[in-house]
Write a structure and sequence with these properties.
The protein has about 575 residues and is α/β, with parallel strands linked by helices. It folds into three domains: about 120 residues, Glucose Oxidase, domain 1, CATH 3.50.30.10; about 110 residues, Enzyme I, Chain A, domain 2; about 300 residues, Alpha-Beta Barrel (TIM Barrel). The chain is built from 24 helices and 16 strands. The strands form two sheets. Strands 1-8-7-3-4-5-6-2 form an eight-stranded mixed beta sheet. Strand 4, helix 7 and strand 5 form a beta-alpha-beta unit.
Length: about 575
């Protein structure tokens, strides 16, 4: 029977495929793909774990005291039977060989399948045997954990390793850093239980240019392993086991979308110029150095935001030092072939925490509201040695191309002065070491209302500013942008938000300072004309959005929108004023 699951649309398009549940509600295990040449070893890991558990259960049975209840021995027999049952052992092996899942993931996937079968049994006694199955799987997972002699390596397997069927990812949540491993992987879309439109998981999904729906509440419980799922990233709906007619309709939409993308791709090398002659700079947001190649391919004329914090994630406490960071920044600068690269210093905190080990080492304490806690520049200033390492690495990379340094979440004069002192110290240290560096411009990210209101003070101390509209909206409206419960209140069209954005752009232009928007608003075609009317001439977005925004710019008469802007900014409903019915 077809089921519809509703959530928040975060990445446009349609994905169709079989569901892969990466995080069961019952067990929490590592999920990664196994390289083809290692499949035999992974099957042996599973067999060794099964043999170890069998011996453990048999030993327990042998050591039962003579006066032990007969039910205990019978229970152990049941566990042994489940352990060797082909529905568990054989099917788990199939997950490994056919999907390249690691043994733990394969076990949790098959547990999900079998647990649902137990839930549907009419006999109460048989339904209760599900607990025995879960206990057996738990023993197997413990055996696998104890036998693991090395950390796994994430492997993005080729599409044909999953068979002919495309796959979609279903999870309770996906950490932003974990999303990065899917860039060259087999998933064509994803759906999660939690998240909002501008949570960083959603942002990375858009950068991958794959359809996604977040905040779907019970999706990971409703959707089963291998269910056919349609993810409608435009409407924020997932259709589970759609009928043949519905499936064909969505496949038609997929074909139309592919044709539209091919048409937009022809604009890749066309200059972005409005109908009335204003040249506009379209830059790319990237997470890792390798993304720079995709930015160039999409027609970006530079990198407006390199989110350096992704270099620090999934490191098990082994954070990158100065040399590793320098090589990463240099790779991005070199790949951009002389075009500008803006590197944001680490924006750790809120929905982008470091892993647990490194968080402990760096004393990054848990807070009740991490979005208002020790994050971004506050975190960097509290970790002076690490901050100086990053600054030195960025400055060294700036000797090889045009590099800008962007400081996130600036709000206080004390922070501004501390940053200026840190950069001055980093340059002095490089002088002492005899290492070359460039005179990189330093900018402030405007994402706190206090910074937008006090923009004149910010402009006196920085070379440029970049509007981070995601956090600016969050803090202006007091909305947790990662919380699906209040996602409907997150409103980029709110009059206060638009007036803060307009104030920042107009003041920067008046002061002769370079200004860009690097938040999600820059990549949303609904805001292109309004931002152009405000005087914005530099947009930074995910590479996948560049062609769409360029098409909008090419069709815009800025003069007409400048005349309309005062009415839009003073309206109670600016969106309705901008686009009347």
């Amino acid at each position: 029977m077809s089921i519809q699951v509703f959530g928040v649309p975060v990445s446009r398009g349609v994905a169709i495929g079989r569901a892969v549940l990466v995080a069961s509600s019952r067990v929490d295990v590592a999920h990664y793909f196994v390289a083809p040449q290692d499949l035999g070893s992974e099957v042996q890991r599973l067999k060794a774990a099964r043999d170890a558990v069998a011996e453990e259960l048999s030993s327990l049975q042998r050591e039962l005291p003579e006066d032990a209840p007969a039910e205990l021995s019978a229970l152990l027999d049941v566990h042994l039977m489940l352990l060797h049952d082909d529905a568990l052992a054989g099917a788990t092996k199939d997950w490994i060989l056919e999907r390249h899942y690691n043994a733990e993931w394969a076990l949790s996937a098959q547990l999900e399948v079998l647990a649902r079968q137990f839930d549907e049994m009419e006999d109460a006694y048989l339904r209760e045997r599900k607990a025995d199955l879960e206990q057996v799987v738990e023993r197997l997972l413990k055996a696998l954990a104890s036998s693991s002699d090395a950390a796994h390596t994430d492997v993005a397997v080729p599409r044909d390793s999953a068979g002919e069927d495309p796959l979609v990812l279903v999870a309770s949540d996906i950490a932003p850093a974990d999303m990065l491993q899917f860039k060259s992987s087999i998933f064509t879309g994803f759906i999660t239980d939690v998240g909002g439109r501008t949570s960083h998981t959603a942002i990375v999904a858009r950068s991958l240019d794959i359809p996604a729906v977040v905040g779907a509440r019970e999706a990971s419980r409703i959707i089963r392993q291998d269910d056919w799922v349609v993810i409608d990233g435009d409407a924020g709906v997932a259709v589970v086991n759609p009928s043949a007619i519905v499936l064909e309709e969505y496949r038609f939409r997929q074909r139309q979308s592919d044709l539209e993308r091919a048409r937009l791709d022809r604009l890749r090398h066309t200059p972005a110029v409005t109908l009335d002659g204003h040249c506009v700079e379209l830059l790319a947001n990237i997470e890792l150095p390798g993304d720079a190649h995709g930015a160039l391919a999409a027609g970006a004329v530079g990198v407006g935001l390199f989110r350096s914090e992704f270099l620090f994630m999934n490191r098990d406490g082994d954070l990158p030092g100065e040399e590793e960071q320098f090589r990463a920044y240099l790779a991005a600068v070199t790949a951009m072939q002389g075009l500008p690269v803006t590197i944001r210093t680490v924006d750790i905190g809120a929905d982008k925490p470091l892993d647990q080990m490194s968080a402990q080492e760096l004393r990054h304490e848990h807070t009740l509201n991490p979005a208002l806690g020790l994050r971004a520049i506050r975190w960097s200033l509290s970790e002076a040695d690490m901050f100086h390492q990053q600054l030195r690495a960025i400055l060294r990379a700036s000797a090889f191309g045009k590099v800008r340094i962007l400081i996130p979440m600036v709000a206080h004069l004390t922070e501004i002065r501390a940053c200026a002192l840190a950069i001055k110290r980093a340059r002095a240290e490089l002088d002492r070491m005899g290492l070359a560096y460039g005179m990189a411009e330093v900018g402030a990210m405007i994402e706190v209302p206090a910074a937008a209101i006090g923009i004149d003070m910010i402009l006196r101390h920085f070379d440029f500013v970049s509007l981070g509209t995601n956090d600016l909206i969050q803090y202006t409206l007091a909305i947790d942008r990662a919380d699906e419960a209040v996602a409907h209140l997150y409103d980029a069209w709110h009059p206060s938000v638009l007036n803060l954005v307009d104030r920042t752009i107009s003041r920067a232009n008046a002061a002769g300072r370079y200004v860009s928007v690097c938040g999600e608003m820059a990549g949303d075609p609904a805001f292109t004309e309004v931002l152009l009317a405000m005087g914005l001439r530099s947009f930074s977005m995910h590479p996948a959005q560049i062609a769409t925004i360029k098409q909008k710019i090419l069709r815009t008469d800025t003069t007409r929108w400048v005349r309309r802007l005062p009415d839009i900014l003073s309206a109670e409903d600016p969106q309705a004023q901008a686009f009347p019915a």
